[in-house]
Structures are given as structure tokens and as C-alpha cells.
Specification:
The protein is α+β, with helices and mostly antiparallel strands and about 110 residues long. About 30% of the residues lie in helices and about 25% in strands. It has a four-stranded mixed sheet. β2 and β3 form a beta hairpin. It is globular and about 45 Å long. The relative contact order is 0.24.
Length: about 110
């Protein structure tokens, strides 16, 4: 059993996100999404992840130690990185500023 997490400011998440994360980590380790940025570098998105419930103790212990970096926690737990390709819009584009919201609205208006 696993728990999926996503950031609430990512409106274009792939419909098959959870299925692909689950398929990439059949032995129960965490799986996190990644996509290439505009410059071609692979960027991990640890908030878009699948976390095995069996890791809850290790996660709680890491939080108790003060760990707050989700990417580091994922690496410590042996997470699998799942690449999501894109053509027009990064599926993990997030809205942080008014300009980002305007961009998301343009993307939606153009289909």
C-alpha cells in the first residue's frame, strides 16, 4: 500500500502519474516524478511521489531529526525516479506568482 502526494499548485499533472509511479517501483520503494526543464536538465519533483506506507516509521524518524528536504528523504529511502516527457507544457509546472497564473490561463485557453 502506498500514498501519493502532489503539490496543489501543479495544475497540469499527468493523468497516469500514480500508475506510472507504481509501475516503476514494484518492490515498494518510493517513486518520484521528474521532467526535463527548458534547458534540458532533468529536474526531480519529489512532491509528486508515491510513498510506501511501510516507510512511515523511517519518514517519521527523519522528520523528528529535522529533515525537511523531501528530495533528500526520497534519496535516503532509495526512491526510483520516473521521467515524464512533455512537448508543450511541463506537467509539473507550478503556479507561484501572478505571472505563473497568467501563463497557466494562456495554456488552458490554447488547449
Amino acid at each position: 500500500m502506498s500514498v501519493a502526494t502532489v503539490a496543489v499548485d501543479t495544475p497540469f499533472l499527468p493523468a497516469d502519474l500514480v500508475a506510472r509511479l507504481r509501475a516503476a517501483a514494484p518492490s515498494g520503494q518510493p517513486a518520484l516524478a521528474a521532467s526535463h526543464d527548458g534547458a534540458g536538465a532533468l529536474r526531480r519533483h519529489p512532491t509528486a511521489a508515491l510513498w510506501p506506507v511501510a516507510a512511515r516509521r523511517a519518514i517519521a524518524e527523519a522528520l523528528a531529526r529535522g529533515e525537511r528536504r523531501i528530495g533528500q528523504l526520497a534519496a535516503d529511502l532509495g526512491a526510483v525516479v520516473v521521467q515524464f516527457d512533455w512537448d508543450r507544457t511541463d506537467p509539473f509546472f507550478n503556479i507561484n506568482r501572478p505571472e505563473d497564473l497568467a501563463r497557466a490561463e494562456r495554456i488552458l485557453a490554447n488547449g
